[in-house]
Amino acid sequence: MGLKNYFAPKPKKGEAEKENAHAPITTLPDSHFSSGFETPASPGSRPESVFRNSNMAELHDLKCDVMVNYLHQQQQERLWTMHGEDEGVVLKKSRGEYTCCPADLADVQDGLLKAIEVLNVRVC
């Protein structure tokens, strides 16, 4: 279909069928369609979502991890850190359960994360 056909008025139903009756029909081999992607079972169905089958605890953990990484990124962009060993962001997931970024905070024996866990603070 060229540009000329795009701007031309649409033919009436009877005329369109007559034009298509003389057009050659070409078929492609089945190997042409094997791109590695699966087609959905029905045309109106949506693909399975990773989050649809997850339970709420996994989604909450994912949400907390995304938030702590975002906050750490903002901390670094605004130069609120000196890149010390015991600097970062700690976020409370639930009672007595925290997540931190960078992950090295969890490895320090008596560091910031351990102190926050002992104090069970709400915000830090």
Describe the 3D structure.
By secondary structure, this protein is α+β, with helices and mostly antiparallel strands. 35% of the residues lie in helices and 9% in strands. The protein has a two-stranded antiparallel sheet with strand order 1-2. Strand 1 (89-94) and strand 2 (97-101) form a beta hairpin. The chain is elongated, with a radius of gyration of 29 Å.
Mean pLDDT: 74
Structural class by helix and strand composition = alpha+beta
Question: What share of the residues lie within helices?
Answer: 25-40%
> Tally the helices: what do you get?
4
Spatial extent as radius of gyration: 29 Å
Are there runs of 5+ residues with pLDDT below 50, and where? none
Topology:
Elements: H1 3-7, H2 13-21, H3 56-77, E1 89-94, E2 97-101, H4 112-119
Descriptive labels:
single chain; 124 residues; alpha+beta; 2 strands; elongated
Summarize the structure.
The chain is an alpha+beta fold and 124 residues long. It has helices at 3-7, 13-21, 56-77, 112-119; strands at residues 89-94, 97-101. The model has no long low-confidence stretch (mean pLDDT 74).
